[in-house]
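Lab notebook, design round three. We kept the backbone fixed and only want residue identities now. Task for the bench partner: fill in a sequence for the structure below.
Input structure tokens:
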């Protein structure tokens, strides 16, 4: 960022420093349509619509006490960021002012008392309500050395929303632990909890986890919306040919269908959508999950409990004694679970599960590494689907642009050599909070385990060898699927390159 050359910056994804925001009162930010965004070499970096307004810059210097480093930004983006940051900061400050923080120590009775004070309750409620209203998938409450940071993950990207005084940390974290039914006296080990809350008239499920850090316990709230499990497969972003292959695999009466990808890539949502297709009164469908994220009517769901001795493998054995037609295993984590799942697929059951691999061909090698015999994998696995989630371009404000042909060729983007294709990029508007993106879409790679791939599996071929054969047989890779969605204007080139290595 070179303010001296007055380059225009993009505020939509800029990591705004909340301490910088606190340096300028909201009244003056709105009066001048400016936004403090960072500190740099003891200067306050301020986004302004007009860098030539010397009088305004002098006023900001007098008001804040800092030397001002102006950077150019569109005025509509500045107003949007002002609305987002100052509204939250003002509400937080009003709640903090209602607390008597001076005499609080770390005794358990004091922490419990503070967590039950009305201002702390209102502050926690406000953090949760805003997260739900802004379509966040999770909330991160993170103790820092001198303050408490709150971030929301919206469309897969983290955004800092507030920083509050360190003194309020114990009360806020204890309040959340009480809501989740956790032990507030235990701060040395991780804890997990779950609760249902009514937010804006909707019942929302929250999965809550704590973990000790050097500055105190951090808390992660994962927001589980019931409408996610009601999605049709057609709503998940599958291209028609890819969806046909996947449907053909999971509508069989037996065999294993695996969905792979990193944490947070939508694997569970895809499996639930498949179960919605399969669910009817003629089938006995049983799942074993850790944790059970969504309650599915008509399906028998088992919650793994390691404390009670109910691991995935033990739960899976119990399922197979109940004469199931379809079995869903939340995740294959170890050799024993993998072995039982594969054997179940060989004995007339349809088995759906997830696995952590980078792509679909990698699932075969991963199962072999776990110790499952290659000939069993070749006989049982019918299909492997890999996926990622990419942000959708906001359809209200996306804008056309062209990328030079040499750049597209370098990343193997499918092009016609005559002229560059017209692509779309994010711009930002009020409907997408000036991010340029709204919602997410799946990027998919479906590998059908053909006879040729079965032979490679038995021969312990490498992932690259399996991938080459799968592509020859018509598999569309994650990158190819992503590029196709870029060409359709659904997402941006930068977003695909961000989520797919």
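Proposed sequence:
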């Amino acid at each position: 960022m070179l303010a001296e050359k007055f380059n225009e910056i993009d505020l939509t994804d800029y990591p705004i420093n909340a301490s910088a925001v606190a340096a300028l009162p909201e009244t003056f930010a709105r009066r001048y349509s400016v936004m403090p965004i960072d500190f740099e070499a003891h200067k306050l970096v301020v986004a302004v619509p007009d860098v030539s307004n010397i009088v305004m810059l002098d006023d900001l210097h007098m008001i804040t006490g800092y030397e001002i480093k102006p950077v150019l930004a569109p005025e509509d983006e500045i107003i949007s960021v002002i609305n987002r940051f100052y509204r939250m900061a003002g509400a937080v400050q009003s709640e903090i002012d209602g607390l008597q923080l001076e005499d609080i120590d770390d005794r358990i009775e004091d922490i419990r008392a503070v967590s039950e004070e009305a201002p702390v309750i209102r502050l926690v409620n406000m953090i949760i309500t805003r997260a739900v209203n802004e379509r966040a998938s999770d909330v991160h409450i993170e103790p820092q050395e001198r303050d408490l940071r709150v971030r929301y993950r919206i469309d897969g990207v983290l955004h800092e929303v507030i920083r509050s005084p360190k003194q309020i940390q114990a009360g806020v974290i204890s309040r959340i632990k009480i809501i989740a039914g956790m032990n507030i006296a235990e701060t040395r080990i991780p804890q997990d909890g779950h609760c249902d809350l009514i937010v804006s008239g909707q019942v929302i499920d929250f999965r809550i986890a704590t973990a000790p850090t050097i500055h105190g316990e951090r808390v992660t709230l994962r927001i589980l919306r019931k409408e996610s499990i009601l999605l049709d497969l057609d709503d998940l972003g599958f291209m028609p040919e890819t969806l046909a292959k996947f449907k053909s695999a999971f509508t069989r009466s037996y065999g294993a269908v695996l969905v792979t990808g990193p944490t947070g890539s939508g694997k569970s949502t895809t499996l639930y959508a498949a179960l919605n297709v399969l669910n009817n009164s003629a089938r006995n469908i049983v799942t074993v999950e850790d944790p059970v994220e969504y309650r599915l009517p008509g399906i028998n769901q088992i919650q793994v409990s390691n404390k009670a001795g109910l691991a995935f493998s033990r739960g899976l054995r119990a399922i197979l004694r109940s004469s199931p037609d379809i079995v869903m295993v939340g995740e294959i984590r170890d050799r024993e679970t993998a072995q039982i799942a594969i054997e179940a697929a060989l004995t007339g059951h349809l088995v759906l599960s997830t696995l952590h691999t980078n792509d679909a061909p990698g699932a075969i090698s991963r199962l072999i590494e776990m110790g499952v015999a290659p000939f069993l994998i070749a006989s049982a696995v019918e299909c492997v689907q890999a996926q990622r989630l990419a942000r959708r371009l906001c359809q209200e404000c996306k804008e056309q642009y062209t990328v030079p042909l040499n750049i597209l060729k370098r990343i193997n983007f499918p092009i016609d050599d005559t002229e560059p294709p017209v692509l779309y990029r994010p711009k930002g508007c009020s409907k997408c909070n000036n991010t340029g993106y709204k919602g997410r879409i799946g990027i998919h790679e479906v590998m059908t385990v053909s006879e040729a791939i079965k032979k490679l599996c038995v021969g312990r071929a490498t992932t690259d060898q399996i991938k080459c054969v799968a592509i020859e047989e018509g598999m569309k890779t994650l990158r190819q699927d992503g590029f196709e969605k870029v060409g359709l204007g659904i997402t941006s080139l930068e977003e695909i390159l961000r989520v797919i290595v």
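Keep this in mind before ordering anything: DSSP finds 18 helices and 18 strands in the chain.
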